[in-house]
Design the sequence.
């Protein structure tokens, strides 16, 4: 048995993808599936990682670096056996890295009896994975349902209660594009065409605000029109 178990939810961004990194709001759906992490003390660091198909995976160096950064926030001199059950695919925008960072931080908090550093540790892991996380993924891991997220604002996450809303998520497992790579591409384009991209980012924020109003009034026809 593990000494402790942590769980982080996945997410999907319905409006505001990429613009949220530059301070604009987004509408996010927190998923029922995510990443489960079990931790027990051990003589040396070891992993058992299974993906959403139940297949065993060898942790990448990026995965190991993020793990080390998360553990460093708690007690860096202790070693662990880390068992990971990933219920969602990686590299398709469903927040697997944030879910792992939060789940591992939560489990380590229980093992070391230190609850306060969970957010700090999860953020440290996300910075390794993404370089410039917006915070939206780490909000989704502990949320439920659909919410409006405005980074840096007071009460930056607000639920959008409009029931029932069921999301069906589909992906092509062989086509993976790490989020950090996509963020870098957007950043490069912003440097090349700053005025045009700034206008697009502002427009995407306005789209999220309009969609939030449609969710609050349960206007599904408008939600679909805005998505289109």
Sequence:
């Amino acid at each position: 048995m593990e000494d402790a178990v942590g769980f982080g939810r996945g997410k999907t961004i319905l409006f505001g993808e990429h613009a949220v990194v530059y301070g604009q709001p987004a509408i996010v759906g927190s998923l029922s599936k995510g990443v489960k992490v079990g931790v027990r003390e051990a003589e040396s660091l070891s992993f058992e990682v299974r993906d959403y198909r139940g297949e065993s995976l060898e942790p990448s160096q990026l995965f190991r670096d993020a793990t080390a950064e998360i553990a460093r926030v708690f007690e860096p001199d202790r070693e662990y056996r880390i068992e990971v059950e990933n219920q969602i695919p990686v590299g398709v925008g469903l927040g697997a890295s944030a879910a792992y960072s939060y789940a591992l931080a939560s489990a380590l908090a229980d093992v070391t009896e230190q609850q306060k550093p969970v957010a700090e540790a999860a953020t440290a892991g996300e910075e390794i994975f993404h370089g410039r996380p917006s915070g939206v993924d780490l909000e989704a891991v502990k949320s439920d349902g659909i919410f409006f997220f405005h980074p840096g604002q007071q009460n930056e996450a607000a639920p959008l209660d409009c029931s029932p809303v069921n999301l069906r998520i589909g992906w092509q497992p062989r086509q993976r594009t790490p989020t950090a790579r996509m963020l870098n591409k957007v950043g490069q384009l912003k440097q090349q065409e700053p005025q045009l991209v700034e206008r697009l980012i502002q427009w995407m924020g306005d789209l999220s605000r309009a969609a939030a109003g449609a969710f609050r009034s349960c206007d599904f026809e408008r939600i679909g029109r805005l998505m289109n």
Notes: The chain has seven helices and seven strands.
